[in-house]
Amino acid sequence: MKFTNLTRANEIGANSYLLEFDGEGRIVLDAGLHPRKEGEEATPNFGAMGERPTDALIVSHAHHDHIGALPLFVRRREKMPVYLSEATYLLAEPLLHNSVEVMLKQRASLGITSYPLFTHKEVDRSAKAYRVCRPGQECSIQEDSDPKGAPLSFRLYPGGHVLGAVGVRFRYRDRQIFYTGDVSFQEQTLMPAADFPLDGIDTLITEATRGGKETPENQRRPMQIERLISSIESTFRRGGAVLIPVFALGKTQELLATLHLEQKAGRLRRCPITIGGLSRSFTQIYDRLAKRSFRRHPGLSLLGDVAPTVLDGRLARQLSPKPGELYLISSGMMTEHTLSNILARRFLPEERHSIFIVGYCDPNSPAGQLLQTSRGNLVALDSELPPQPLLCEVEQFDLTSHAIREDLLAYILRVNPRLCVLVHGDPPALAWFQERLREERPGLEVVVPAPGEPLEL
Ligand SMILES: [Zn+2]
Questions:
Q1: Distance 130 CA to ligand 1 centre (A)
Q2: Over the stretch 149-176, which tens digit does the pLDDT of each residue have?
Q3: pTM of this prediction?
Q4: How many angstroms does the Cα of residue 208 sit away from the middle of ligand 1?
Q5: Using CA atoms, how far apart are residues 179 and 16, in angstroms rounded to an integer?
Q6: Domains and CATH numbers, the chain
Q7: Burial class of residue 216 (count of CB atoms within 10 Å of its CB; 0-12, 13-18, 19+)
Protein backbone atom coordinates (compact mmCIF):
# COMPACT_ATOMS: atom_id res chain seq x y z
CA MET A 1 0.00 0.00 0.00
CA LYS A 2 1.16 3.52 -0.80
CA PHE A 3 0.26 7.06 0.19
CA THR A 4 1.28 10.10 -1.89
CA ASN A 5 0.86 13.68 -0.75
CA LEU A 6 -0.36 15.59 -3.81
CA THR A 7 -0.05 19.05 -2.23
CA ARG A 8 2.82 21.22 -3.45
CA ALA A 9 4.21 21.97 0.05
CA ASN A 10 3.76 20.86 3.67
CA GLU A 11 1.17 23.49 4.60
CA ILE A 12 -2.58 24.15 4.68
CA GLY A 13 -3.01 24.46 0.94
CA ALA A 14 -4.60 22.54 -1.91
CA ASN A 15 -5.46 19.31 -0.09
CA SER A 16 -5.27 16.12 -2.10
CA TYR A 17 -3.84 12.70 -1.28
CA LEU A 18 -3.50 9.46 -3.24
CA LEU A 19 -4.01 6.07 -1.62
CA GLU A 20 -2.97 2.98 -3.60
CA PHE A 21 -4.17 -0.40 -2.40
CA ASP A 22 -1.69 -2.57 -4.30
CA GLY A 23 -3.47 -3.53 -7.53
CA GLU A 24 -6.95 -3.37 -5.98
CA GLY A 25 -7.83 0.29 -5.82
CA ARG A 26 -6.45 3.73 -6.48
CA ILE A 27 -8.35 6.36 -4.54
CA VAL A 28 -7.82 10.10 -4.25
CA LEU A 29 -8.88 11.86 -1.05
CA ASP A 30 -10.01 15.46 -1.64
CA ALA A 31 -9.18 17.75 -4.57
CA GLY A 32 -8.77 21.27 -3.19
CA LEU A 33 -7.50 24.61 -4.38
CA HIS A 34 -4.95 26.68 -2.49
CA PRO A 35 -6.72 29.65 -0.87
CA ARG A 36 -3.91 32.15 -1.49
CA LYS A 37 -2.23 31.01 -4.70
CA GLU A 38 -3.26 31.67 -8.28
CA GLY A 39 -3.47 29.74 -11.56
CA GLU A 40 -1.74 26.35 -11.82
CA GLU A 41 0.12 26.98 -8.54
CA ALA A 42 -3.20 26.83 -6.68
CA THR A 43 -3.97 23.29 -7.87
CA PRO A 44 -2.78 20.00 -6.37
CA ASN A 45 0.12 18.30 -8.10
CA PHE A 46 -2.06 15.74 -9.95
CA GLY A 47 0.93 15.14 -12.26
CA ALA A 48 2.60 13.17 -9.43
CA MET A 49 -0.06 10.45 -9.87
CA GLY A 50 1.21 9.21 -13.22
CA GLU A 51 -1.11 8.01 -15.95
CA ARG A 52 -2.75 4.96 -14.37
CA PRO A 53 -6.54 5.26 -13.99
CA THR A 54 -8.10 6.32 -10.69
CA ASP A 55 -10.96 4.27 -9.24
CA ALA A 56 -12.61 6.94 -7.11
CA LEU A 57 -12.40 10.36 -5.52
CA ILE A 58 -13.71 10.79 -1.97
CA VAL A 59 -14.38 14.34 -0.78
CA SER A 60 -14.26 14.94 2.99
CA HIS A 61 -16.14 18.28 3.00
CA ALA A 62 -17.11 21.28 0.90
CA HIS A 63 -14.41 23.77 1.89
CA HIS A 64 -12.60 25.22 -1.10
CA ASP A 65 -9.21 23.82 -0.03
CA HIS A 66 -10.70 20.28 -0.16
CA ILE A 67 -13.12 20.42 -3.11
CA GLY A 68 -12.14 23.48 -5.23
CA ALA A 69 -10.23 21.49 -7.89
CA LEU A 70 -12.87 18.76 -8.27
CA PRO A 71 -14.07 19.65 -11.80
CA LEU A 72 -10.45 19.82 -12.92
CA PHE A 73 -9.72 16.36 -11.56
CA VAL A 74 -12.91 14.84 -12.93
CA ARG A 75 -12.30 16.37 -16.39
CA ARG A 76 -10.48 13.46 -17.99
CA ARG A 77 -11.99 10.82 -15.69
CA GLU A 78 -15.66 11.02 -16.50
CA LYS A 79 -16.45 7.43 -15.53
CA MET A 80 -14.80 7.76 -12.12
CA PRO A 81 -17.28 8.01 -9.20
CA VAL A 82 -16.97 10.82 -6.64
CA TYR A 83 -18.15 9.81 -3.15
CA LEU A 84 -19.41 12.39 -0.68
CA SER A 85 -21.98 12.97 2.05
CA GLU A 86 -25.42 14.35 1.17
CA ALA A 87 -24.61 17.81 2.55
CA THR A 88 -21.29 18.02 0.66
CA TYR A 89 -23.15 16.95 -2.49
CA LEU A 90 -25.59 19.87 -2.09
CA LEU A 91 -22.97 22.42 -0.99
CA ALA A 92 -20.61 21.57 -3.86
CA GLU A 93 -22.83 23.07 -6.55
CA PRO A 94 -23.12 26.71 -5.31
CA LEU A 95 -19.51 26.63 -4.14
CA LEU A 96 -18.02 25.51 -7.46
CA HIS A 97 -20.23 27.76 -9.60
CA ASN A 98 -19.23 30.71 -7.40
CA SER A 99 -15.61 29.70 -7.88
CA VAL A 100 -16.00 29.94 -11.68
CA GLU A 101 -17.43 33.48 -11.25
CA VAL A 102 -14.54 34.52 -8.99
CA MET A 103 -11.98 33.17 -11.48
CA LEU A 104 -13.69 34.99 -14.37
CA LYS A 105 -13.43 38.24 -12.40
CA GLN A 106 -9.77 37.56 -11.58
CA ARG A 107 -9.04 36.90 -15.23
CA ALA A 108 -10.48 40.31 -16.10
CA SER A 109 -8.95 42.26 -13.21
CA LEU A 110 -5.59 40.51 -12.71
CA GLY A 111 -5.02 39.16 -16.23
CA ILE A 112 -4.61 35.51 -15.11
CA THR A 113 -5.03 33.90 -18.52
CA SER A 114 -5.36 30.31 -17.22
CA TYR A 115 -8.61 31.32 -15.44
CA PRO A 116 -11.22 30.01 -15.17
CA LEU A 117 -9.58 26.64 -14.48
CA PHE A 118 -12.97 25.06 -15.28
CA THR A 119 -16.32 26.21 -16.62
CA HIS A 120 -19.91 26.24 -15.34
CA LYS A 121 -20.62 23.40 -17.78
CA GLU A 122 -17.86 21.31 -16.26
CA VAL A 123 -19.23 21.93 -12.77
CA ASP A 124 -22.60 20.59 -13.93
CA ARG A 125 -20.96 17.66 -15.70
CA SER A 126 -18.95 16.72 -12.58
CA ALA A 127 -22.18 16.38 -10.61
CA LYS A 128 -23.06 13.32 -12.73
CA ALA A 129 -20.19 11.48 -11.04
CA TYR A 130 -21.40 12.21 -7.48
CA ARG A 131 -22.47 9.25 -5.35
CA VAL A 132 -23.93 10.05 -1.94
CA CYS A 133 -22.82 7.84 0.98
CA ARG A 134 -24.57 7.86 4.31
CA PRO A 135 -22.29 7.93 7.35
CA GLY A 136 -22.22 4.43 8.81
CA GLN A 137 -22.89 2.70 5.47
CA GLU A 138 -20.14 0.35 4.22
CA CYS A 139 -19.39 1.24 0.58
CA SER A 140 -17.42 -0.42 -2.18
CA ILE A 141 -15.61 1.32 -5.03
CA GLN A 142 -16.84 -1.42 -7.37
CA GLU A 143 -20.33 -0.02 -7.48
CA ASP A 144 -22.14 -3.26 -8.22
CA SER A 145 -20.22 -5.46 -5.80
CA ASP A 146 -21.17 -6.25 -2.21
CA PRO A 147 -18.84 -4.33 0.13
CA LYS A 148 -18.91 -7.23 2.61
CA GLY A 149 -17.07 -9.59 0.30
CA ALA A 150 -14.85 -6.99 -1.39
CA PRO A 151 -11.15 -6.79 -0.42
CA LEU A 152 -11.50 -2.99 -0.19
CA SER A 153 -14.39 -1.03 1.28
CA PHE A 154 -14.86 2.29 3.07
CA ARG A 155 -17.18 4.01 5.50
CA LEU A 156 -17.77 7.70 6.30
CA TYR A 157 -17.85 9.04 9.88
CA PRO A 158 -19.18 12.50 10.94
CA GLY A 159 -16.27 14.91 11.42
CA GLY A 160 -18.08 17.78 13.18
CA HIS A 161 -16.10 20.49 11.35
CA VAL A 162 -18.86 21.88 9.04
CA LEU A 163 -22.14 20.48 7.71
CA GLY A 164 -21.45 17.23 5.86
CA ALA A 165 -17.78 16.93 6.94
CA VAL A 166 -16.62 13.32 7.25
CA GLY A 167 -13.60 11.20 8.02
CA VAL A 168 -13.08 8.06 5.89
CA ARG A 169 -12.25 4.60 7.21
CA PHE A 170 -10.86 2.11 4.68
CA ARG A 171 -10.94 -1.61 5.29
CA TYR A 172 -8.40 -3.36 3.09
CA ARG A 173 -7.89 -7.09 3.71
CA ASP A 174 -6.79 -7.16 7.37
CA ARG A 175 -5.84 -3.48 7.47
CA GLN A 176 -7.76 -0.37 8.56
CA ILE A 177 -6.73 3.11 7.45
CA PHE A 178 -8.50 6.23 8.69
CA TYR A 179 -8.37 9.73 7.13
CA THR A 180 -9.73 12.45 9.43
CA GLY A 181 -10.33 15.24 6.87
CA ASP A 182 -10.91 18.42 8.89
CA VAL A 183 -12.29 17.52 12.30
CA SER A 184 -13.62 19.08 15.49
CA PHE A 185 -13.90 17.07 18.70
CA GLN A 186 -15.63 19.96 20.49
CA GLU A 187 -19.26 20.60 19.71
CA GLN A 188 -20.07 23.93 18.07
CA THR A 189 -23.44 25.69 18.15
CA LEU A 190 -24.78 23.81 15.11
CA MET A 191 -22.30 20.99 14.63
CA PRO A 192 -22.00 18.17 17.15
CA ALA A 193 -18.53 16.87 17.95
CA ALA A 194 -16.98 14.32 15.57
CA ASP A 195 -18.02 10.70 15.98
CA PHE A 196 -14.87 8.89 14.86
CA PRO A 197 -13.89 5.22 15.22
CA LEU A 198 -11.38 4.31 17.91
CA ASP A 199 -10.57 0.64 17.44
CA GLY A 200 -8.66 -1.42 14.94
CA ILE A 201 -7.02 1.44 12.98
CA ASP A 202 -3.41 0.67 12.05
CA THR A 203 -2.74 3.77 9.96
CA LEU A 204 -4.11 7.20 10.85
CA ILE A 205 -3.87 10.07 8.34
CA THR A 206 -4.74 13.18 10.28
CA GLU A 207 -5.05 16.93 9.89
CA ALA A 208 -2.76 18.93 12.18
CA THR A 209 -4.05 22.51 11.73
CA ARG A 210 -3.85 23.59 15.37
CA GLY A 211 -0.56 21.94 16.35
CA GLY A 212 1.09 25.32 16.73
CA LYS A 213 -1.50 26.69 19.14
CA GLU A 214 -2.18 25.85 22.74
CA THR A 215 -5.79 26.18 23.98
CA PRO A 216 -5.92 26.41 27.78
CA GLU A 217 -9.13 25.40 29.54
CA ASN A 218 -10.08 29.03 30.25
CA GLN A 219 -9.85 30.03 26.58
CA ARG A 220 -12.27 27.48 25.14
CA ARG A 221 -15.33 28.19 23.07
CA PRO A 222 -17.92 29.22 25.75
CA MET A 223 -15.53 31.85 27.14
CA GLN A 224 -14.75 33.13 23.64
CA ILE A 225 -18.47 33.50 22.88
CA GLU A 226 -19.04 35.38 26.14
CA ARG A 227 -16.23 37.82 25.29
CA LEU A 228 -17.48 38.23 21.70
CA ILE A 229 -21.01 39.07 22.86
CA SER A 230 -19.78 41.63 25.38
CA SER A 231 -17.48 43.22 22.74
CA ILE A 232 -20.40 43.49 20.28
CA GLU A 233 -22.54 45.08 23.00
CA SER A 234 -19.88 47.66 23.88
CA THR A 235 -19.44 48.57 20.19
CA PHE A 236 -23.19 49.12 19.87
CA ARG A 237 -23.25 51.20 23.07
CA ARG A 238 -20.73 53.66 21.62
CA GLY A 239 -22.73 53.95 18.37
CA GLY A 240 -20.59 51.65 16.23
CA ALA A 241 -21.15 48.79 13.80
CA VAL A 242 -19.46 45.35 13.86
CA LEU A 243 -17.83 43.57 10.93
CA ILE A 244 -17.00 39.88 11.36
CA PRO A 245 -15.15 38.49 8.33
CA VAL A 246 -16.26 34.86 7.98
CA PHE A 247 -16.02 31.85 5.69
CA ALA A 248 -19.28 31.64 3.75
CA LEU A 249 -19.55 27.95 4.65
CA GLY A 250 -19.54 26.98 8.30
CA LYS A 251 -18.57 30.05 10.26
CA THR A 252 -21.46 32.16 8.87
CA GLN A 253 -24.08 29.59 9.90
CA GLU A 254 -22.44 28.91 13.28
CA LEU A 255 -22.45 32.64 14.05
CA LEU A 256 -26.04 33.15 12.89
CA ALA A 257 -27.14 30.39 15.27
CA THR A 258 -24.91 31.58 18.13
CA LEU A 259 -26.04 35.21 17.91
CA HIS A 260 -29.68 34.13 17.69
CA LEU A 261 -29.42 31.97 20.82
CA GLU A 262 -27.62 34.77 22.69
CA GLN A 263 -30.40 37.18 21.69
CA LYS A 264 -33.05 34.73 22.84
CA ALA A 265 -31.27 34.39 26.16
CA GLY A 266 -31.28 38.19 26.53
CA ARG A 267 -27.49 38.55 26.50
CA LEU A 268 -27.38 40.35 23.13
CA ARG A 269 -29.81 42.98 21.87
CA ARG A 270 -31.82 42.24 18.72
CA CYS A 271 -30.05 43.86 15.76
CA PRO A 272 -30.00 43.72 11.97
CA ILE A 273 -27.54 41.11 10.65
CA THR A 274 -26.26 41.18 7.06
CA ILE A 275 -24.70 38.21 5.21
CA GLY A 276 -23.42 37.75 1.63
CA GLY A 277 -25.16 36.02 -1.30
CA LEU A 278 -23.03 32.86 -1.32
CA SER A 279 -23.53 32.53 2.44
CA ARG A 280 -27.27 32.64 1.83
CA SER A 281 -27.04 29.69 -0.58
CA PHE A 282 -25.09 27.64 1.98
CA THR A 283 -27.42 28.69 4.81
CA GLN A 284 -30.39 27.44 2.79
CA ILE A 285 -28.74 24.00 2.67
CA TYR A 286 -28.05 24.09 6.44
CA ASP A 287 -31.80 24.75 6.89
CA ARG A 288 -32.88 22.17 4.34
CA LEU A 289 -30.86 19.42 6.06
CA ALA A 290 -31.59 20.59 9.62
CA LYS A 291 -33.56 17.49 10.52
CA ARG A 292 -31.85 15.01 8.23
CA SER A 293 -28.17 15.51 8.84
CA PHE A 294 -25.73 15.54 11.70
CA ARG A 295 -26.76 19.01 13.02
CA ARG A 296 -27.81 20.43 16.41
CA HIS A 297 -30.92 22.59 16.93
CA PRO A 298 -32.93 20.86 14.19
CA GLY A 299 -35.90 23.17 14.89
CA LEU A 300 -33.88 26.33 14.20
CA SER A 301 -34.31 27.77 10.71
CA LEU A 302 -31.47 30.21 10.11
CA LEU A 303 -33.08 32.07 7.22
CA GLY A 304 -36.53 31.95 8.85
CA ASP A 305 -35.81 32.59 12.56
CA VAL A 306 -32.63 34.68 12.35
CA ALA A 307 -33.77 36.30 9.08
CA PRO A 308 -30.52 38.00 8.03
CA THR A 309 -30.48 40.66 5.30
CA VAL A 310 -28.64 39.49 2.18
CA LEU A 311 -26.11 41.95 0.79
CA ASP A 312 -26.30 42.58 -2.91
CA GLY A 313 -22.69 42.34 -4.13
CA ARG A 314 -23.24 45.18 -6.62
CA LEU A 315 -24.34 47.53 -3.83
CA ALA A 316 -21.52 46.57 -1.46
CA ARG A 317 -19.24 49.26 -2.84
CA GLN A 318 -21.65 51.98 -1.72
CA LEU A 319 -22.53 50.42 1.63
CA SER A 320 -21.57 52.33 4.75
CA PRO A 321 -21.65 50.73 8.20
CA LYS A 322 -24.76 51.62 10.22
CA PRO A 323 -24.65 51.98 14.02
CA GLY A 324 -25.98 48.94 15.87
CA GLU A 325 -25.70 46.60 12.87
CA LEU A 326 -23.72 43.41 12.41
CA TYR A 327 -22.08 42.33 9.16
CA LEU A 328 -21.06 38.66 8.75
CA ILE A 329 -19.27 38.93 5.43
CA SER A 330 -16.83 36.68 3.57
CA SER A 331 -14.02 36.10 2.96
CA GLY A 332 -12.80 35.08 6.40
CA MET A 333 -9.22 36.22 5.77
CA MET A 334 -10.38 39.43 4.06
CA THR A 335 -8.69 38.44 0.82
CA GLU A 336 -8.26 41.36 -1.60
CA HIS A 337 -11.30 42.18 -3.79
CA THR A 338 -13.72 40.24 -1.54
CA LEU A 339 -16.65 41.99 0.15
CA SER A 340 -15.19 41.76 3.66
CA ASN A 341 -12.00 43.46 2.42
CA ILE A 342 -13.96 46.25 0.71
CA LEU A 343 -16.18 46.78 3.77
CA ALA A 344 -13.28 46.65 6.25
CA ARG A 345 -11.73 49.69 4.60
CA ARG A 346 -14.85 51.62 5.63
CA PHE A 347 -14.62 50.44 9.24
CA LEU A 348 -10.90 51.21 9.72
CA PRO A 349 -11.01 55.05 9.95
CA GLU A 350 -13.74 55.25 12.63
CA GLU A 351 -12.99 54.60 16.30
CA ARG A 352 -16.58 53.64 17.18
CA HIS A 353 -16.62 50.64 14.80
CA SER A 354 -15.16 47.14 15.39
CA ILE A 355 -13.72 44.36 13.27
CA PHE A 356 -13.73 40.99 15.01
CA ILE A 357 -11.72 38.09 13.59
CA VAL A 358 -13.11 34.70 14.61
CA GLY A 359 -11.42 32.08 12.41
CA TYR A 360 -8.07 30.87 11.17
CA CYS A 361 -6.00 33.64 9.55
CA ASP A 362 -2.85 33.22 7.55
CA PRO A 363 -0.40 35.84 8.91
CA ASN A 364 0.20 37.08 5.34
CA SER A 365 -3.50 37.56 4.54
CA PRO A 366 -5.06 41.05 4.93
CA ALA A 367 -6.84 39.89 8.12
CA GLY A 368 -3.52 38.52 9.43
CA GLN A 369 -1.85 41.86 8.63
CA LEU A 370 -4.63 43.72 10.42
CA LEU A 371 -4.14 41.64 13.57
CA GLN A 372 -0.45 42.55 13.59
CA THR A 373 -1.10 46.33 13.32
CA SER A 374 -1.50 48.43 16.46
CA ARG A 375 -4.21 51.05 16.71
CA GLY A 376 -3.12 54.39 15.23
CA ASN A 377 -0.68 52.83 12.74
CA LEU A 378 -1.10 52.43 8.99
CA VAL A 379 -2.32 49.22 7.39
CA ALA A 380 -2.77 48.28 3.71
CA LEU A 381 -5.64 45.84 3.17
CA ASP A 382 -5.42 46.19 -0.61
CA SER A 383 -1.97 46.30 -2.19
CA GLU A 384 -3.17 48.58 -4.99
CA LEU A 385 -4.57 51.25 -2.66
CA PRO A 386 -2.77 53.58 -0.23
CA PRO A 387 -2.53 52.36 3.40
CA GLN A 388 -5.06 53.67 5.92
CA PRO A 389 -4.78 54.50 9.63
CA LEU A 390 -6.26 51.78 11.82
CA LEU A 391 -8.58 53.59 14.25
CA CYS A 392 -11.44 51.12 14.83
CA GLU A 393 -11.28 48.34 17.42
CA VAL A 394 -9.80 45.04 16.20
CA GLU A 395 -10.04 41.90 18.31
CA GLN A 396 -9.57 38.19 17.78
CA PHE A 397 -11.79 35.41 19.15
CA ASP A 398 -10.97 31.75 18.85
CA LEU A 399 -14.13 30.10 17.48
CA THR A 400 -12.26 27.39 15.64
CA SER A 401 -14.00 24.57 13.79
CA HIS A 402 -10.79 22.48 13.87
CA ALA A 403 -9.74 20.07 16.59
CA ILE A 404 -7.72 21.83 19.28
CA ARG A 405 -4.35 20.11 19.56
CA GLU A 406 -5.06 18.80 23.06
CA ASP A 407 -8.11 16.87 21.73
CA LEU A 408 -6.39 15.66 18.58
CA LEU A 409 -3.38 14.39 20.53
CA ALA A 410 -5.73 12.54 22.88
CA TYR A 411 -7.54 10.99 19.89
CA ILE A 412 -4.29 9.80 18.26
CA LEU A 413 -3.12 8.27 21.55
CA ARG A 414 -6.50 6.59 22.11
CA VAL A 415 -6.51 5.11 18.58
CA ASN A 416 -2.90 4.07 19.07
CA PRO A 417 -2.13 3.28 15.41
CA ARG A 418 1.08 1.72 14.16
CA LEU A 419 1.65 4.66 11.79
CA CYS A 420 0.48 8.26 11.99
CA VAL A 421 0.67 10.40 8.84
CA LEU A 422 0.46 14.15 9.54
CA VAL A 423 -1.05 16.43 6.87
CA HIS A 424 -2.89 19.79 6.68
CA GLY A 425 -0.64 21.82 8.94
CA ASP A 426 2.03 24.49 8.78
CA PRO A 427 5.56 23.31 9.66
CA PRO A 428 5.45 24.38 13.36
CA ALA A 429 2.09 22.61 13.80
CA LEU A 430 3.42 19.39 12.23
CA ALA A 431 6.60 19.61 14.33
CA TRP A 432 4.61 19.94 17.58
CA PHE A 433 2.66 16.74 16.92
CA GLN A 434 5.80 14.90 15.83
CA GLU A 435 7.60 15.86 19.00
CA ARG A 436 4.74 15.21 21.41
CA LEU A 437 3.93 11.83 19.86
CA ARG A 438 7.59 10.83 20.00
CA GLU A 439 7.61 11.63 23.73
CA GLU A 440 4.27 10.04 24.58
CA ARG A 441 4.44 6.95 22.36
CA PRO A 442 8.05 6.16 21.32
CA GLY A 443 6.97 3.03 19.38
CA LEU A 444 4.58 4.96 17.12
CA GLU A 445 5.92 5.82 13.69
CA VAL A 446 5.07 9.43 12.80
CA VAL A 447 5.57 10.72 9.26
CA VAL A 448 5.18 14.10 7.56
CA PRO A 449 4.92 12.96 3.92
CA ALA A 450 7.06 14.98 1.51
CA PRO A 451 5.00 16.30 -1.43
CA GLY A 452 5.02 14.00 -4.44
CA GLU A 453 7.05 11.19 -2.81
CA PRO A 454 5.18 7.89 -2.40
CA LEU A 455 5.21 6.59 1.15
CA GLU A 456 4.97 2.84 1.76
CA LEU A 457 2.21 2.13 4.30
ZN1 LIG B 1 -12.31 22.74 6.24
A1: 20
A2: 788 999 999 999 999 999 999 999 999 9
A3: 0.95
A4: 12
A5: 12
A6: 2-213+401-456 (3.60.15.10), 217-396 (3.40.50.10890)
A7: exposed
